[in-house]
Amino acid sequence: MLGMKFAAVLCLSLFMVKTVGAKQYKFAVVPKEENNPFFQASREGCEAAAKELGNVECIFRGPKGVDVRKQDKIIAELVAEGVDGIAIAVAQSAFILDNSMKKALSAGIPIVTYDSDFETEAVNRNPNLRAAYIGTNDFELGKALGEALKAEMPNGGKVIIQSGRSDSPNLNLRVMGVRSALSGREYEHSPGKRLMGEAGWTEPTKPLYNFGSFEQALEDLKNVLNSYKQRDIHAVVAVGGWSQFLTTYRNVVEPYKQAISDKEIIIITADTADEQLVYLKDGLAHANVGQNPFEMGRQAILTLYKLATKKPVEEIQYIPMTYCTQENYQTCTKN
């Protein structure tokens, strides 16, 4: 018995010595914005991976709201601090490439992207720009949003698309996916072309851009709901969860609950945060297509650790999506 206790203590001591003696790494995760439930979940994934590994510190730092210049400044600061790797959710590809990324590459700091990648053309020009992309297949996410709309309205109609920025690489891919699903066409470049009657679908306006503002996204949705009958609009597809991250979403949408139930107006939205699933339960939306930001943050750190320890990584790491409706909202995000 004493021998077994001695062996257990010895093993524990050896483990502690190994952990204490191991090189300590500092990896940074830079979201598009900190004040967003999606990116807060990626922070939790970052911290979970750091705890798993034991000799890693997770640094989560980004602008409070979407701000390309502030994100660029934060990346430059992290490079100056000498972190061992950076995972970036790219807000705007060109500006970061012209500024902080030059410093990061010059310093030899491993870079991965998550949630939002650099422009495809930029990656093709410089294959060493980033070692990996971890996140959703954004084109397929957009297609899934479009297919969800078709399931509710198989004969077409007029649709408003909500997006964040016109120069956001990942959001443009989602917009292209929506258009491709509805039109049945393939587009050479994102965000595709505005729908002008293809397969019965029309976009009466260009996408409504909110620049990452939840309040603006909700105000845009409110304006559509207030005027959908006069303008003969049948659906709203949001390629991000912006408006549904506000508790006031309920106040705006609830007056139209019967119209939503009767499918006079269809609401399809990206992301499946807990608060969004409540809106499905209460009949205040038709469908959500979700991502797994926790796993993105976790895999970003695990990938940076592999790079720092000279292990191979997969360049493209797609995280599976979730598909939620009023019927399956209780189980759609469960593993």
UniProtKB/TrEMBL annotation:
Q: Where in the cell is it found?
A: Periplasm
Question: Which is one GO molecular function term here?
Answer: carbohydrate binding
Q: Which residues form the signal peptide?
A: 1-22
Instruction: List residues of the Periplasmic binding protein domain.
Output: 27-311
One Pfam family in the UniProt entry: Peripla_BP_4
One Gene Ontology term of the biological-process aspect is: transmembrane transport
Instruction: Spell out where the chain crosses the membrane.
Output: none
Q: Cellular component GO terms, alphabetically?
A: outer membrane-bounded periplasmic space
Q: Which UniProt keywords apply?
A: Signal
By sequence similarity, the record places it as follows: Belongs to the bacterial solute-binding protein 2 family.
The record's section on PANTHER family has: ABC TRANSPORTER PERIPLASMIC-BINDING PROTEIN YPHF (PTHR30036:SF7), D-XYLOSE-BINDING PERIPLASMIC PROTEIN (PTHR30036)
Output this protein's name: Autoinducer 2-binding periplasmic protein LuxP
